[in-house]
Amino acid sequence: MNLPPDDDDHTVIAPVPAFPNALAAGTMLGEFEITRVIGQGGFGIVYLAHDRSLGRDVALKEYMPAAFAGRSGETQVTILSAHYAETFNVGLSSFVKEAQLLASFDHPCLLKVYRFWEANGTGYMAMPYYQAPTLKQMLKDEHALLSSEAWLKTFLGHILDALHVLHEKQCFHRDIAPDNILMLDREIPLLLDFGAARRVIGDMTQALTVILKPGYAPIEQYGEMGDMTQGPWTDLYALASVIYFIIAGKVPQAALSRLAADKLVPLAESAKGRYSPSFLEAIDRALAVRPEQRPQSVADFRALLQLEDAPVTRLHRPSTVAVAPAASLAGNEVEEWATPARSPGSDDAQAPPEIDGTGAAAERRKLAMLGTGAAVAVAALVALLLWPHKAPPRRVSALIPPPARPAAASVAPPCPLHRADGTPLCPVMVKIPAGTYRMGSQPGDRDAAPEEFGGQPKAIAAFEMSATEVTAEQWQLCVDDGMCAAPTVASPLPTMPVTQVSWNAVQDYIAWLSKKTGKTYRLPTEAEWEYAARAGTTTIFPWGDRIGDYNAHCGQCGTLGEYPQTAPVGSFKAYGGLYDMLGNVYEWVADCWTPHHGDSGADSASCQNKVQKGGAFDSMGADVRPVARTFGDRTKGDPRVGFRLSK
């Protein structure tokens, strides 16, 4: 039985209970009269508005990044602090660029911008107002129809036709997913959520960053991947993931997890007999982990799918279709956009308890668990604007025509470390933006331990951190080179985090990797680790205030039945683009242990005990909080302790 799919990408489109910065009903913005709020997200507000000059309703989007802007008077948008001025202005510039880009397209499957302008210290877009379900919503009621091969091919024809228009201008969507596709008249797909402003701001602030949907985002979107560049094949992977979701009833395995251990069952096997072999094989090809193994263009994918000429997409417009002239805007160039597409295989790609001053309380906490075993009418712009506040700090290039290719000297060299099949084994690094952070627990945290207090706000410079813990197979390459000692007990799987390596041994690995790759790696500081693990949130955990199930791998996370010990890296959802920061294994950091954040600590070269963070597979919930900390002897390994890299 082909059941409706269970989408676990955790993207939620929901009404917001209050709109403190929203314009009042009746406010006039040029010819547009605000009627009501449709929705509000971390980067803006969408209103239902009435165009008095043309007598039609529109969706009007206002740039309003809630974390660093507010309302002054009835309409003026003001920056909360001079500290946020650059970030606000870059986001506004990107907002305008996105509007200009959308206004340049005229395709029934691409969102249309009627008009855009700047006023009141911010920017606005006027767009068609649609009432239609998303594909994700339609699947709940009409899955049998939508999962037929005939319907899927028609759907693919429409989307591929729209992508061809984008790709001809060297533009890429980069966020195709079932909740980003509106179904006009429950028949014609409309691509939503280009989100250029949030992508650019995501490079500049920890609090507001773009989310990559695991299962839909291909490996080249996860950060520094050597010669794995983004291009048409990036959108084709996401589109194939949507088809996989419809057919298989679940989101595909996340690409980063597949890179470590590909457990994705091809549709040619799992859906055999329900669809034509050529159709299933085409979808499987587009879902290849490595970009050069996928179809390289819309034309290539259409040929594999054996689609006839692109379908004639019936033009769907609101009842009033006259378009107001777009304002001419200048002086809003953003410094960096997407690089031009090129073949991924080419050479140039690329109240605290009693104080225990000895720290014994932290060690007891660490050891405590050892050995335990219906479619809803929506406006198009709601999906476009309701960006999550708790999203990973990922760098995703904005959807803007790219400039000339930068000089070759700025292109990262290919990874020199590989598996036998050519899969690169260099660490995938995630860019963490600069910010200010105060380490440790807040007063009132019922799980707070003495060693978590005393932190003071400090500036954190921008840095990079590996998306996963270093794996056993990555460590083995150093062993094979004679530069690292083998762990006393081998990991059951090569994609599990390496453990039983001392802090001192980790320094040998880092020295070897830095020389091998020509890049300077190191362990993160405790402050960097904790700042990154919080992923820009203020909750106890990056996913909320409760431990919950399957948010991480720990003794109280509901995961021990499936993984009695460590799990392969990337088995659980990423937060801030980083996998397994909490749970799975404790992680060494650079700092010497002190029983209180207010202590200065010993010199790193001479201290015996080093800080460990994150908790392990059998840890209690309190010990996998980002602020929790413990320590270990720098000369000794532990089966519950691994590490990840920074630079």
**Coarse shape:** globular
Kindly state the number of beta strands. 18
Say which CATH homologous superfamily of the largest domain is assigned: paralog of FGE (formylglycine-generating enzyme)
Uncertain runs? 8-17, 196-210, 310-412
Beta-strand proportion: 5-15%
Our count of helices gives 14
CATH topology term of the largest domain: paralog of FGE (formylglycine-generating enzyme)
Largest sheet: 6 strands, antiparallel
**In the residues, how many domains can be counted?**
3
Task: Tell me the distance between the termini.
Answer: 50 Å
- Average pLDDT over all residues: 78
Helical content, roughly?
10-25%
CA radius of gyration is 25 Å
Q: What is the level 1 CATH name of the largest domain?
A: Alpha Beta
- By CATH, the architecture of the largest domain is named Alpha-Beta Complex
Biggest sheet, spatial arrangement of strands:
1-2-3-4-8-7
Detailed description of the structure:
The protein has three domains: 28-128, Phosphorylase Kinase, domain 1; 135-305, Orthogonal Bundle (Transferase(Phosphotransferase), domain 1), CATH 1.10.510; 416-647, Alpha-Beta Complex (paralog of FGE (formylglycine-generating enzyme)), CATH 3.90.1580.10. The protein has helices at 85-104, 135-146, 149-168, 196-202, 232-248, 255-260, 267-270, 277-286, 298-305, 360-367, 380-385, 472-480, 503-517, 526-534; strands spanning 28-29, 32-41, 44-51, 56-63, 69-72, 76-79, 115-119, 122-128, 181-184, 188-191, 429-432, 435-438, 457-460, 463-466, 586-592, 609-613, 629-633, 641-642. Strand 9 (181-184) and strand 10 (188-191) form a beta hairpin. With 647 residues, it is of the alpha+beta class. Strands 1-2-3-4-8-7 form a six-stranded antiparallel beta sheet. It contains 14 helices and 18 strands.
